[in-house]
Specification:
Blueprint (H helix, E strand, L loop, with lengths): L1 H15 L1 H36 L3 E6 L2 H6 L10 H13 L3 E7 L1 H12 L3 H5 L8 E6 L5 H8 L5 E6 H44 L1 H9 L4 H36 L4 H4 L8 H31 L2
Antiparallel strand pairs: 1-3, 1-4, 2-3
Helix pairs in contact: 1-10, 2-8, 2-10, 2-12, 8-10, 8-12, 10-12
Protein backbone atom coordinates (compact mmCIF):
# COMPACT_ATOMS: atom_id res chain seq x y z
CA UNK A 1 0.00 0.00 0.00
CA UNK A 2 2.78 2.41 0.90
CA UNK A 3 4.68 1.64 -2.29
CA UNK A 4 1.50 2.18 -4.32
CA UNK A 5 0.95 5.53 -2.59
CA UNK A 6 4.52 6.66 -3.29
CA UNK A 7 4.26 5.65 -6.95
CA UNK A 8 0.93 7.43 -7.36
CA UNK A 9 2.39 10.57 -5.80
CA UNK A 10 5.33 10.43 -8.22
CA UNK A 11 2.94 10.35 -11.18
CA UNK A 12 0.91 13.23 -9.76
CA UNK A 13 4.01 15.33 -9.16
CA UNK A 14 5.42 14.76 -12.64
CA UNK A 15 2.10 15.67 -14.27
CA UNK A 16 1.57 18.81 -12.16
CA UNK A 17 5.00 20.21 -13.08
CA UNK A 18 5.21 18.87 -16.60
CA UNK A 19 6.99 21.92 -18.05
CA UNK A 20 9.64 22.07 -15.33
CA UNK A 21 10.04 18.28 -15.41
CA UNK A 22 10.69 18.50 -19.14
CA UNK A 23 13.26 21.26 -18.52
CA UNK A 24 14.97 19.06 -15.91
CA UNK A 25 15.10 16.12 -18.33
CA UNK A 26 16.56 18.24 -21.12
CA UNK A 27 19.18 19.93 -18.93
CA UNK A 28 20.23 16.64 -17.32
CA UNK A 29 20.42 14.97 -20.73
CA UNK A 30 22.58 17.73 -22.22
CA UNK A 31 24.90 18.04 -19.22
CA UNK A 32 25.42 14.28 -18.92
CA UNK A 33 25.87 13.93 -22.69
CA UNK A 34 28.65 16.52 -22.42
CA UNK A 35 30.01 14.68 -19.39
CA UNK A 36 30.11 11.39 -21.28
CA UNK A 37 31.47 13.14 -24.36
CA UNK A 38 34.34 14.67 -22.38
CA UNK A 39 35.20 11.26 -20.89
CA UNK A 40 35.20 9.73 -24.37
CA UNK A 41 37.28 12.61 -25.70
CA UNK A 42 39.87 11.93 -22.99
CA UNK A 43 39.89 8.27 -23.99
CA UNK A 44 40.23 9.23 -27.65
CA UNK A 45 43.19 11.53 -26.99
CA UNK A 46 44.88 8.84 -24.87
CA UNK A 47 44.28 6.25 -27.61
CA UNK A 48 45.67 8.57 -30.27
CA UNK A 49 48.70 9.37 -28.13
CA UNK A 50 49.44 5.71 -27.61
CA UNK A 51 48.99 5.02 -31.33
CA UNK A 52 50.97 7.95 -32.72
CA UNK A 53 53.69 8.27 -30.10
CA UNK A 54 54.55 4.65 -30.84
CA UNK A 55 55.20 5.68 -34.46
CA UNK A 56 57.16 8.85 -33.67
CA UNK A 57 60.62 9.15 -35.23
CA UNK A 58 63.47 11.49 -34.49
CA UNK A 59 65.26 12.62 -37.64
CA UNK A 60 68.92 13.65 -37.76
CA UNK A 61 69.29 15.63 -40.99
CA UNK A 62 72.79 15.76 -42.48
CA UNK A 63 74.39 18.70 -44.27
CA UNK A 64 74.55 18.72 -48.08
CA UNK A 65 76.42 21.03 -50.45
CA UNK A 66 73.56 23.52 -50.65
CA UNK A 67 73.36 23.73 -46.84
CA UNK A 68 77.10 24.41 -46.67
CA UNK A 69 76.54 27.63 -48.62
CA UNK A 70 73.41 28.88 -46.82
CA UNK A 71 73.05 27.26 -43.37
CA UNK A 72 75.33 28.36 -40.50
CA UNK A 73 74.96 24.91 -38.93
CA UNK A 74 76.74 23.49 -41.98
CA UNK A 75 79.47 26.13 -42.25
CA UNK A 76 82.17 23.43 -42.19
CA UNK A 77 80.80 21.82 -45.34
CA UNK A 78 78.73 18.83 -46.36
CA UNK A 79 78.76 15.73 -44.23
CA UNK A 80 81.62 13.30 -44.93
CA UNK A 81 81.53 9.52 -45.03
CA UNK A 82 83.59 9.34 -41.83
CA UNK A 83 81.14 11.68 -40.05
CA UNK A 84 78.19 9.55 -41.18
CA UNK A 85 79.87 6.38 -39.92
CA UNK A 86 80.63 8.03 -36.58
CA UNK A 87 77.05 9.32 -36.18
CA UNK A 88 75.65 5.86 -36.95
CA UNK A 89 78.09 4.21 -34.54
CA UNK A 90 77.14 6.63 -31.77
CA UNK A 91 73.43 6.02 -32.42
CA UNK A 92 73.92 2.26 -32.21
CA UNK A 93 75.57 2.66 -28.78
CA UNK A 94 72.68 4.65 -27.29
CA UNK A 95 70.36 2.59 -25.09
CA UNK A 96 67.33 4.81 -25.86
CA UNK A 97 67.50 3.94 -29.57
CA UNK A 98 65.42 1.03 -30.79
CA UNK A 99 66.04 1.24 -34.53
CA UNK A 100 67.94 3.43 -37.01
CA UNK A 101 67.06 3.73 -40.70
CA UNK A 102 69.28 5.63 -43.15
CA UNK A 103 67.57 7.68 -45.88
CA UNK A 104 69.73 8.71 -48.83
CA UNK A 105 69.28 11.82 -50.97
CA UNK A 106 67.69 9.76 -53.75
CA UNK A 107 65.24 8.16 -51.29
CA UNK A 108 64.42 11.55 -49.77
CA UNK A 109 63.81 12.96 -53.26
CA UNK A 110 61.54 10.03 -54.14
CA UNK A 111 59.51 10.44 -50.92
CA UNK A 112 59.21 14.18 -51.50
CA UNK A 113 57.92 13.64 -55.05
CA UNK A 114 55.38 11.11 -53.77
CA UNK A 115 54.03 13.53 -51.16
CA UNK A 116 54.39 16.91 -52.89
CA UNK A 117 54.61 16.05 -56.59
CA UNK A 118 51.93 18.63 -57.45
CA UNK A 119 53.84 21.46 -55.78
CA UNK A 120 55.56 23.99 -58.13
CA UNK A 121 58.68 23.69 -55.98
CA UNK A 122 58.95 19.95 -56.67
CA UNK A 123 59.72 20.55 -60.35
CA UNK A 124 62.78 22.67 -59.51
CA UNK A 125 64.31 20.31 -56.95
CA UNK A 126 67.02 17.79 -57.73
CA UNK A 127 68.18 14.81 -55.63
CA UNK A 128 71.48 16.51 -54.68
CA UNK A 129 69.48 19.30 -52.98
CA UNK A 130 67.80 16.84 -50.63
CA UNK A 131 69.21 15.94 -47.25
CA UNK A 132 70.42 12.58 -46.12
CA UNK A 133 69.08 11.63 -42.73
CA UNK A 134 68.91 9.01 -40.03
CA UNK A 135 65.36 8.13 -38.96
CA UNK A 136 65.51 7.01 -35.35
CA UNK A 137 62.88 4.98 -33.56
CA UNK A 138 63.13 5.51 -29.79
CA UNK A 139 62.20 3.00 -27.11
CA UNK A 140 60.60 5.89 -25.22
CA UNK A 141 59.41 8.89 -27.33
CA UNK A 142 59.89 11.14 -24.29
CA UNK A 143 63.69 10.67 -24.57
CA UNK A 144 64.00 12.88 -27.64
CA UNK A 145 66.17 15.39 -25.79
CA UNK A 146 68.90 12.75 -25.38
CA UNK A 147 69.26 12.60 -29.17
CA UNK A 148 69.03 16.36 -29.58
CA UNK A 149 71.73 16.98 -26.95
CA UNK A 150 74.06 14.40 -28.49
CA UNK A 151 73.82 15.53 -32.13
CA UNK A 152 72.70 19.16 -32.28
CA UNK A 153 75.62 21.28 -33.44
CA UNK A 154 77.81 18.32 -34.40
CA UNK A 155 79.85 18.63 -37.59
CA UNK A 156 77.87 17.34 -40.55
CA UNK A 157 74.49 17.61 -38.75
CA UNK A 158 72.10 20.25 -40.10
CA UNK A 159 69.31 19.74 -37.56
CA UNK A 160 67.59 17.27 -35.26
CA UNK A 161 63.81 17.18 -35.55
CA UNK A 162 61.30 15.44 -33.33
CA UNK A 163 57.87 14.58 -34.78
CA UNK A 164 56.51 14.42 -31.24
CA UNK A 165 56.55 18.24 -31.09
CA UNK A 166 54.06 18.39 -33.97
CA UNK A 167 51.83 15.83 -32.27
CA UNK A 168 52.02 17.68 -28.96
CA UNK A 169 50.49 20.77 -30.61
CA UNK A 170 47.62 18.66 -31.97
CA UNK A 171 46.98 16.95 -28.64
CA UNK A 172 47.21 20.29 -26.85
CA UNK A 173 44.41 21.59 -29.09
CA UNK A 174 42.30 18.46 -28.46
CA UNK A 175 42.84 18.74 -24.71
CA UNK A 176 41.84 22.41 -24.83
CA UNK A 177 38.63 21.51 -26.62
CA UNK A 178 37.99 18.81 -24.04
CA UNK A 179 38.39 21.23 -21.14
CA UNK A 180 36.05 23.68 -22.87
CA UNK A 181 33.46 20.90 -23.13
CA UNK A 182 33.93 20.16 -19.43
CA UNK A 183 33.39 23.82 -18.55
CA UNK A 184 30.11 23.86 -20.50
CA UNK A 185 29.18 20.55 -18.85
CA UNK A 186 29.79 22.02 -15.38
CA UNK A 187 27.60 25.01 -16.22
CA UNK A 188 24.84 22.72 -17.50
CA UNK A 189 25.06 20.60 -14.34
CA UNK A 190 24.60 23.71 -12.19
CA UNK A 191 21.58 24.71 -14.29
CA UNK A 192 20.17 21.18 -13.99
CA UNK A 193 20.62 21.17 -10.20
CA UNK A 194 18.91 24.55 -9.88
CA UNK A 195 15.99 23.32 -12.00
CA UNK A 196 15.72 20.16 -9.92
CA UNK A 197 15.66 22.12 -6.66
CA UNK A 198 13.06 24.56 -7.97
CA UNK A 199 10.93 21.76 -9.42
CA UNK A 200 10.97 19.89 -6.12
CA UNK A 201 10.09 23.03 -4.15
CA UNK A 202 7.22 23.92 -6.48
CA UNK A 203 5.94 20.36 -6.21
CA UNK A 204 6.22 20.45 -2.42
CA UNK A 205 4.48 23.84 -2.24
CA UNK A 206 1.60 22.63 -4.43
CA UNK A 207 1.10 19.69 -2.06
CA UNK A 208 1.74 21.48 1.22
CA UNK A 209 -1.74 20.63 2.49
CA UNK A 210 -1.20 16.88 1.98
CA UNK A 211 2.24 16.97 3.58
CA UNK A 212 0.84 18.95 6.52
CA UNK A 213 -1.83 16.32 7.11
CA UNK A 214 0.80 13.57 6.86
CA UNK A 215 2.91 15.28 9.52
CA UNK A 216 -0.12 15.58 11.82
CA UNK A 217 -0.91 11.88 11.56
CA UNK A 218 2.68 11.00 12.43
CA UNK A 219 4.16 10.09 9.05
CA UNK A 220 7.96 9.87 9.11
CA UNK A 221 10.08 12.50 7.41
CA UNK A 222 11.44 10.04 4.88
CA UNK A 223 7.93 8.82 4.01
CA UNK A 224 6.88 12.40 3.26
CA UNK A 225 10.04 13.15 1.29
CA UNK A 226 10.16 9.88 -0.70
CA UNK A 227 7.69 10.88 -3.50
CA UNK A 228 9.51 14.17 -4.15
CA UNK A 229 12.95 12.54 -4.14
CA UNK A 230 11.78 9.81 -6.47
CA UNK A 231 10.17 12.35 -8.81
CA UNK A 232 13.54 14.05 -9.20
CA UNK A 233 15.29 10.68 -9.57
CA UNK A 234 12.85 9.53 -12.27
CA UNK A 235 13.22 12.78 -14.22
CA UNK A 236 16.99 12.56 -13.89
CA UNK A 237 17.03 8.91 -14.96
CA UNK A 238 15.02 9.76 -18.08
CA UNK A 239 17.51 12.53 -18.85
CA UNK A 240 20.42 10.13 -18.26
CA UNK A 241 18.85 7.58 -20.61
CA UNK A 242 18.52 10.26 -23.29
CA UNK A 243 22.18 11.20 -22.74
CA UNK A 244 23.20 7.55 -23.18
CA UNK A 245 21.16 7.38 -26.38
CA UNK A 246 22.95 10.53 -27.65
CA UNK A 247 26.37 8.96 -27.05
CA UNK A 248 25.45 5.65 -28.67
CA UNK A 249 23.96 7.39 -31.72
CA UNK A 250 26.97 9.72 -31.96
CA UNK A 251 29.35 6.75 -31.98
CA UNK A 252 27.20 4.89 -34.52
CA UNK A 253 26.41 7.70 -36.96
CA UNK A 254 29.61 9.76 -36.72
CA UNK A 255 32.28 7.08 -36.55
CA UNK A 256 30.80 3.84 -37.92
CA UNK A 257 28.03 4.95 -40.30
CA UNK A 258 26.61 8.20 -41.62
CA UNK A 259 29.74 10.35 -41.62
CA UNK A 260 31.77 7.12 -41.33
CA UNK A 261 34.89 8.85 -40.03
CA UNK A 262 36.54 5.51 -39.32
CA UNK A 263 36.59 4.89 -43.09
CA UNK A 264 37.47 8.43 -44.17
CA UNK A 265 40.12 9.14 -41.53
CA UNK A 266 42.06 5.90 -41.53
CA UNK A 267 45.08 7.55 -39.89
CA UNK A 268 43.09 8.05 -36.67
CA UNK A 269 42.71 5.13 -34.30
CA UNK A 270 39.17 5.71 -32.98
CA UNK A 271 37.96 4.41 -29.64
CA UNK A 272 35.86 1.25 -29.74
CA UNK A 273 32.37 0.43 -28.54
CA UNK A 274 33.79 -0.90 -25.28
CA UNK A 275 34.87 2.62 -24.30
CA UNK A 276 31.34 3.91 -24.94
CA UNK A 277 29.50 1.08 -23.20
CA UNK A 278 31.63 1.29 -20.05
CA UNK A 279 30.61 4.96 -19.63
CA UNK A 280 26.85 4.32 -19.81
CA UNK A 281 26.43 2.81 -16.29
CA UNK A 282 28.32 5.77 -14.80
CA UNK A 283 26.05 8.25 -16.62
CA UNK A 284 22.90 6.41 -15.52
CA UNK A 285 24.08 6.20 -11.90
CA UNK A 286 24.92 9.93 -11.93
CA UNK A 287 21.55 10.80 -13.47
CA UNK A 288 19.80 8.88 -10.70
CA UNK A 289 21.84 9.94 -7.66
CA UNK A 290 22.46 13.60 -8.52
CA UNK A 291 18.76 14.66 -8.67
CA UNK A 292 17.85 12.44 -5.71
CA UNK A 293 20.52 14.01 -3.48
CA UNK A 294 19.67 17.53 -4.69
CA UNK A 295 16.00 16.91 -3.86
CA UNK A 296 16.84 15.39 -0.47
CA UNK A 297 18.86 18.40 0.70
CA UNK A 298 16.35 20.88 -0.77
CA UNK A 299 13.45 19.19 1.04
CA UNK A 300 15.22 19.06 4.40
CA UNK A 301 15.24 22.82 4.50
CA UNK A 302 11.92 23.42 2.77
CA UNK A 303 9.64 20.90 4.53
CA UNK A 304 11.45 21.00 7.86
CA UNK A 305 10.49 17.45 8.68
Amino acid sequence: MRAQFVLSEIGVGLRRNLTMTFAVIVSVALSLALFGGSLLMSDQVSTMKGYWYDKVNVSVFLCNKSDAESDPNCAKGAVTDDQKKQILADLDKMTVVEKVVYESQDQAYKHYKEQFGDSPLAASLTPDQMQESYRIKLKDPEKYQVIATAFDGRDGVQSVQDQKGILDNLFGLLNGMNWAARAVMALMLVVALMLIVNTVRVSAFSRRRETGIMRLVGASGFYIQAPFIMEAAVAGLIGGSVACAFLVMARYFIIDHGLALSEKLTLINFIGWDAVLTKLPLILATSLLMPALAAFFALRKYLKV
